[in-house]
């Protein structure tokens, strides 16, 4: 498996986004655990989760507990989780970036994951009601306390990324933003991460769990390149992202063993400069 580095730690170049295993319409627990273990068998050593990946507030933390169960007896896998999103009884999403909340959320994630320190802890999304300096400051305190090994942020713009890295004293390890053929507006954040040597983790790299299967139909260039190589358009998409910068680590969401197995094989696909140029042109 091709590898990349997050905060100096070597991980697989393709990670597993575990969110689809815990939202509404989730697969049964056995299939979810099989999906996680298939990812590991394929060489995946990065699994992304969050405390808020749940159907609603009644099973908050479901995804973290699921991953902890699947990883019993397994070493060498980086688990990246996030705090700062909340859920309500009707499944709506909220925000809480207060330092005291993030610290308590981290403690809860530590318990659910069953670890002494979280490999990578990310602030899920800026809270307009709380200054970023205060929210990211909590991450700095968690780093200093040894409760987290690496700190990251998610859904940050370039100015916020620079601010976060400054607050963390140059210790910002990752940025997790949406990026896909359908959502390319995070190119500036990707380029900044490449400049600063910060890992960039595209979430929903295939366009989201409901749209991933239609990627080739929506974006003909990806389908054409896929046919030329005898692979899926999804593999082409992930290989295209990997070619953008050594700091890029896509985390495709998956709830089926077959889909994460296909995604993991993207590390073996080499695209020509001509093919990459065609894929870089946005579809109207």
List the helices and strands and how they pair.
Layout: E1 3-6, E2 9-12, E3 16-17, H1 29-41, E4 46-48, H2 62-70, E5 78-83, E6 85-87, E7 93-95, H3 99-113, E8 120-123, H4 132-145, E9 151-154, H5 158-167, E10 172-176, H6 187-196, E11 199-200, H7 215-218, H8 220-229, H9 233-242, H10 257-264, H11 273-280
Parallel strand pairs: 3-4, 4-5, 5-8, 8-9, 9-10, 10-11
Antiparallel strand pairs: 1-2, 6-7
Word description of this protein:
By secondary structure, the protein is an alpha/beta fold. The protein has one domain: TIM Barrel (Alpha-Beta Barrel), CATH 3.20.20.100. It has helices at 29-41, 62-70, 99-113, 132-145, 158-167, 187-196, 215-218, 220-229, 233-242, 257-264, 273-280; strands at 3-6, 9-12, 16-17, 46-48, 78-83, 85-87, 93-95, 120-123, 151-154, 172-176, 199-200. The strands form three sheets. It has a seven-stranded parallel beta sheet with strand order 3-4-5-8-9-10-11, covered by helices on one side. A two-stranded antiparallel sheet has the order 1-2. Strands 6-7 form a two-stranded antiparallel sheet. The longest helix is centred in the middle third of the chain and has 15 residues, at 99-113. The two termini are 34 Å apart. The model has no long low-confidence stretch (mean pLDDT 96).
């Amino acid at each position: 498996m091709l590898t990349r580095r997050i905060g100096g730690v070597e991980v697989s170049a393709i990670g597993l986004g575990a969110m689809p295993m815990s939202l509404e319409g989730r697969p049964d627990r056995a299939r979810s655990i099989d999906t996680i273990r298939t990812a590991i068998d394929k060489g995946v050593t990065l699994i992304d989760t969050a405390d808020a990946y749940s159907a609603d507030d009644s099973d908050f933390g479901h995804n973290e507990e699921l991953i902890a169960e699947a990883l019993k007896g397994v070493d060498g896998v980086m688990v990246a989780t996030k705090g700062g999103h909340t859920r309500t009884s009707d499944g709506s999403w909220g925000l809480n970036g207060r330092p005291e909340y993030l610290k308590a959320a981290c403690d809860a994630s530590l318990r659910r994951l069953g670890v002494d320190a979280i490999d990578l802890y990310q602030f899920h999304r800026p809270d307009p009601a709380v200054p970023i300096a205060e929210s990211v400051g909590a991450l700095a305190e968690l780093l200093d306390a040894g409760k987290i090994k690496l700190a990251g942020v998610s859904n940050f713009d370039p100015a916020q990324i620079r601010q976060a890295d400054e607050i963390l004293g140059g210790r910002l390890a990752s940025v997790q933003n949406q990026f896909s053929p359908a959502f390319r507006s995070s190119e500036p954040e990707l380029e900044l991460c490449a400049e600063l040597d910060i890992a960039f983790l595209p979430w929903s790299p295939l366009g989201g769990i409901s749209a991933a299967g239609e990627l080739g139909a929506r974006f003909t260039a990806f389908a054409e390149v896929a046919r030329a190589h005898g692979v899926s358009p999804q593999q082409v998409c992930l290989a295209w992202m990997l070619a953008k910068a050594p700091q890029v680590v896509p985390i495709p969401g998956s709830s089926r063993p077959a889909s994460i197995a296909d995604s993991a094989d993207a590390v073996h696909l080499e695209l020509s400069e001509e093919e990459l140029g065609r894929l870089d042109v946005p579809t109207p």
